[in-house]
Specification:
Elements (H helix, E strand, L loop, with lengths): L1 E6 L4 E8 L3 E9 L1 H5 L6 H22 L9 E7 L3 H18 L3 E5 H7 L12 E6 L4 E8 L2 E7 L5 H11 L6 H9 L24 H12 L8 H27 L3 E5 L6 H13 L3 E3 L3 H4 L4 H12 L29
Parallel strand pairs: 1-4, 4-5, 6-9, 9-10
Antiparallel strand pairs: 1-2, 2-3, 6-7, 7-8
Helix pairs in contact: 2-3, 4-11, 5-6, 5-7, 5-8, 6-8, 8-9
The structure holds 5'-O-[(R)-(carboxyoxy)(hydroxy)phosphoryl]adenosine and zinc ion.
């Protein structure tokens, strides 16, 4: 079965074709980073307009690269949420219209399910069940994944997501957008330990997170009387270490609690080198293993949406009503067992 996937939930326009027999047949990705950089963050209306500008061309290009036409497709999957409403509407409209015209199903895919399942695209994929640490710009969650569509939330952030904390802290340090990778690059030239930042909720006894206090601690540091003397690289290293310490400790606790040994890390922050190194060491020490999506699949892309859509298609999922544009800007992953139209 050949599924075209469309991702347009935020600032990346992604298109891909995944074949359940032959794997990935084609993909195209356009990042809007330059468009938003001057504003210091994503401007939703500009994001929507840019998705409209590029999506049709990217779809045509992907089909051409795969040597296919729309008539060769079995379904079209699109990110229905969570994400920016206007941006989601672009992908949903294009996907639903194309699917209706071609007389094939359109599948409304959950963005985080895309991230969550993307490590399964690797040759050396983990077996179910595993613990997933989802760390993106909008989410920080620990889940037990027992199969496609079988997700149990174990803990999540009570305020800022890990990526959001990276982005906001980067802004405080004057690093601009996109903050996460820039802060990580600066941290690589600094030494952690000098500023004694807190490790929020490290000993809370549950699997929840909180990162907004950490960002405030950095703000206090840079705006305090000694602000001018603060070494930005050391402070960035300290901030990154604090986030990594908490993520690693809670991920290990989740594995212990569920008697599991495989950890999957998904979402943009999963690209962070310090986090990967710390998780690799910690898991190896207790005989477990960490699985990461390929680096290109860590951040938003169309491949993960085509893949998640294909998994749902082979399990018999079909659009409840043709040409019905379904988006859910806020959509808890735990609700996924129910079809989107029924929610
Ligand atoms: O999953 P993603 O591409 O988009 C969603 O939020 O769905 O994640 C983007 C987030 C941003 O907050 C970005 O700053 C963060 O991932 N990020 C990083 C790194 N690369 C991306 N954070 C820390 N270190 C990185 N290397
Ligand atoms: Zn994402």
């Amino acid at each position: 079965m050949k599924v075209l996937g469309i991702e347009s939930s935020c600032d990346e326009t992604g298109v891909a074709i995944f074949d359940t027999e032959a794997g990935l047949l084609g993909e195209a990705l356009y990042s809007q980073i330059d468009l938003h950089a001057v504003y210091g963050g994503v401007v939703p209306e500009l994001a929507s307009r840019d998705h409209i500008r590029l999506l049709p061309a990217l779809v045509r290009q992907t089909l051409k690269d795969a040597g296919m036409t729309v008539a060769d497709l079995d379904a079209i999957a699109y990110t229905a949420g969570p994400g920016l409403a206007g941006a989601l509407l672009v992908g949903a409209s294009v996907a639903e219209a194309m699917a209706f015209a071609a007389g094939i199903p359109a599948l409304a895919v959950h963005h985080l399910e895309g991230h969550l399942l993307s490590p399964l695209l690797a040759d050396d994929a983990p077996d179910f069940p595993f613990i997933a640490l989802l760390v993106s710009g909008g989410h920080t969650q620990l889940m037990q994944v027992s199969g496609v569509g079988e997700y149990e939330l174990l803990g999540e952030t009570l305020d800022d997501a890990a990526g959001e904390a990276f982005d906001k802290t980067a802004k405080l340090l004057g690093l601009g957008y996109p903050g996460g990778p820039r802060l990580a690059a600066l941290a690589a030239s600094g030494r952690p330990g000098k500023y004694r930042l807190p490790r929020p909720m490290l000993h809370s006894g549950d699997l929840d997170f909180s990162f907004s206090g950490l960002k405030t601690a950095v703000l206090t540091m840079v705006s305090g009387t000694n602000g001018a003397a603060v070494c930005a690289a050391d402070l960035a290293a300290d901030f990154q270490q604090a986030v990594v310490d908490v993520l690693v400790a809670k991920a290990l606790a989740a594995l212990r609690q569920r008697h599991l040994r495989s950890l999957v890390v998904a979402g943009g922050v999963g690209a962070n080198r310090a986090l990967r190194d710390a998780l690799d060491v910690a898991l190896a020490r207790q005989g477990g293993r960490v699985y990461y999506p390929a680096p290109a699949l860590c951040t938003d892309n169309g491949v993960m949406i085509a893949f998640a859509g294909a998994q749902r298609l082979v399990r018999g999922e079909r659009s409840p009503a043709p040409a019905t544009i379904r988006i859910r800007p806020r959509w808890p992953l735990a609700e996924l067992t129910r079809p989107v139209a029924a929610q």
